[in-house]
Amino acid sequence: MQFTTKIPVQKSSFPIDYDSKIMLLGSCFADNMGEKFQYFKFQATTNPFGIIFNAVSLEKLIRRAVENRMFTENDIFFHNELWHCYEVHSELSNPDKEIFLSNLNSILESTHRHIASLTHCIITLGTSWVYRNIETNEIVANCHKVPQKQFTKELLSIEQTEKSLQNIVSLIHSVNPNCNFVFTVSPVRHIKDGFTENTLSKSHLIAAIHKTIIHHPSPITYFPAYEIMIDELRDYRFYAEDMLHPNQTAIDYIWIQFFENYISESEFGLMNEICSIQKGLKHRPFNPNTESHQKFLNQLDLKIQTIQNQYPFIKFC
Fold it and tell me: For the GSCFA domain, which residue ranges apply (predicted)?
């Protein structure tokens, strides 16, 4: 008997392997997926400028990175004892102005290099709702707790999001024509916007992504993370305490659907080996000085060395 509605996931025609260079951008769900890539030691970079929820702000950052256009004093401001930038997440904010600018430009240069070598860019959109700075008339990625009266709230149209997504693809392809894209919509519901408003927002994102795929069919696929969460996992036991975010069980389940269809089957064996090593590194024995535990550590070191000889970029902490 079938007790769930299974969401079909199409197998990727450009699967990820351990030689792939991956960048994940977008909402907090991009961070969730990025943690999985890091755990299995893929060559992945996740949200270098922090969590970004909307397509317009992502386009702005990618354009800046592709053009290698440095941040200046005109791009930052001081508020609540910290220097901020409306283009990036608050986690990067800093009390020292010079350090803040230096950090931003260091990340920018690193992102510029990564984009040029990417094989896969995975973008997770969170919302169509955005805030526009009244003074500059610019959409911001983060309000940094600046008073609400300095912004207007608006819903990006399907066409606006589609335009930004197409621009993102074109910008990256201008320096790296071989990059493949995976678009997805975050399964996190933004209830602070309202229940109906959240549905409207997600529908705009899904429509925009599929319209973009029509224009760029070969290098872009859609992974249905949102649909898996809302339909296949439609039970509150798969949600965190806030009843909005997927819990670890749901994240693990969605990751399994992803790697079974987007990662080359030839890498499954290595992934299992790395998973075994990760569990071994976390093991805390009751009696660490016993001969059996020392033998276990030696075998673990041998496994690590074998993998690192073949893949020097893989490091275990």
Answer: 21-258
For the entire predicted model, the pTM comes to 0.95
Q: Which of 273, 271, 266, 267 is nearest to 303 (CA)?
A: 273
pLDDT value at position 228?
A: 97
pLDDT at 72: 98
- For residue 297, name the pLDDT band (cuts at 50, 70, 90): confident
The CATH architecture to which 21-263 belongs is: 3-Layer(aba) Sandwich (3.40)
Q: Is the Cβ–Cβ distance between 183 and 220 less than 8 Å?
A: yes
User: How many Cα atoms occupy the beta-carbon half-sphere of 241 within 13 Å?
Assistant: 0
As beta bridge partners, residue 151 has 133
Name the DSSP letter for residue 74: G
Alpha-carbon distance values, 295 to 129, 273, 277, 298 (Å): 56, 18, 14, 5
What tens digit of pLDDT does each residue of 23-77 get? 999 999 999 999 999 999 999 999 999 999 999 999 999 999 999 999 999 999 9
Q: Give the separation between CA 171 and CA 62, rounded to whole angstroms.
A: 7
CA dist 294 and 2 (Å) reads 47
Backbone φ and ψ for 152, nearest 5 degrees, come out as: -115, 145
The β-bridge partners of 124 are 26, 184
Query: How many CB atoms are closer than 10 A to CB 167?
Result: 17
